[in-house]
Amino acid sequence: MCKIVVIGSTNTDMTIQTDVLPQVGDIVAGGRFRICPGGKGANEAIAASRLGGSVSLITKTGNDLFGRQAKQMFSSEGIRTDYIFSDANNPSGVALIMVNNAGEKYISLAQGSITTLSLEEIDKTRSEIMDAKVLLIELETPIETALYAARIASESGVPVIINPSPQQTLPDELFRLASIMIPNRSEASKLTGVDVNDFDSAKEAARKLADKGVETVIITMGHRGALMLRDEETHIIEAFDADVKDTSGAGDVFCAAVCVAISENKDLLSAMKMASAAAALQVSRDGMMDAIPYRYEVERLLTPP
Question: Which of 207, 218, 243, 246 is deepest in the core (most CB within 10 A)?
Answer without folding.
Answer: 218
